[in-house]
Amino acid sequence: MTDLFSAPPPTTTGPAPVPSRTAQRRRQKASAAARRRRRRRRIVVLFLALVVVGGAGWYVYEHVLPGLSFGSFSAKAADYEGQGTGPVQVTVNPGDTGTAIGRTLLDAGVVKSVKAFTEAYGANPNAAGIQPGVYTLRKEMKASEAVAMLAANTGRVEYQVTVPEGYTVEQIVSRASGVTGIPASEFAKAKKNTKATGLPAAAKGNYEGWLYPATYSFDPDVDATDILSQMIAKTKAELKTLKVPSSEQEEVLIKASIVEREASRDSDFGKVARVIDNRLAPNGPTGGLLQIDATVAYGLGRSGLTISSADQKDPSNAYNTYKHAGLPPGPIGSPGEKAIKAVMNPTPGNWVFYVTVNLDTGETKFTDSYQQFGDYKKEFQSWLAKHPQDSK
After folding, report:
1. Is there a contact between 298 and 257 (Cβ–Cβ < 8 Å)?
2. Low-confidence ranges of the chain (pLDDT < 50)
3. Partners of 87 in the β-ladder
4. Which H or E run includes 133?
5. What's this model's pTM, rounded to 2 decimal places?
6. How many Cα atoms within 13 Å fall on the side-chain side of residue 228?
7. Residues 239, 216: Cα–Cα separation, whole Å
8. Which helix or strand (DSSP H or E) is residue 150 part of?
């Protein structure tokens, strides 16, 4: 009879085989490798967790806490009263948060605590608009006053350099040097590095015409390279806005600089631009000669109105457009938007000559007749005889 509840007899016929030493070593190595992998995974997971928690903590500390108010659960922040005493300069760096600015002001003795500043920062809706730069504040200020001054851009230390239309590089450097205190020699040195200043290769190292006429604001630590590069960047931006092709930019600036110097009234800009094109036309009445006194004067380093016949006959002056056909080697000043627009879209007409007959009003007469041109020149000479001081 079979016992249904008894275990079946073992089927082995002998003792289990003993693993070889090689197999044992393989199993030990595999086990150790598995343990190392598990340890590495645990370290990576722990590291990522710390990064996430740490990053979240930093964000809360820098961005959230400054704008939160905890009411009766938070002790009153230490703060000064009043508008402060002596002046002190502080620097707000790009990307500074309210807490970072508060630390800077605390170190400079402006505010009494970072907490007071961050609370005032969170309460002022304009605080997010605080711009990087150097500011003159006062020591021991009430935190809300400090935030208000920064937000209103009050006390910001900066140099303002205004470049009028038609100014030459020499005039621009002189003005920038006078405002910032940077020696002219530093500008001469900076101009040698055209890569740093951003001067296009088409300019062939000549900065004339590439320093855009505008008003610029510079921080106190600005250098000559910064100033030149900002002005050139402004020129590039304006040329791009006006859709001037890169291959034509130097030519456009040369023409526009002449228009800027020659045109007195807004209505004359397009006409002067047309005269330039008509004189440069193949088989034109002037044989491709511009015959413009302003270019001759630039080549001679003069700013006066009177150019002699000897000056007009001097071929050694590369800017003498009475002797050299085509455009001069480069611009003769910095043209503004109106002059550039005029060159890009000249007023239709067949004028070849023009004369400004009244320097007080800027009245300029245009013609395609050489005889009438002579009459206009006599009219101007008559006006000049009555106003000799204006010829200087």
Report:
1. no
2. 1-16, 18, 60, 63-73
3. 138
4. strand 133-138
5. 0.73
6. 30
7. 18
8. helix 143-151
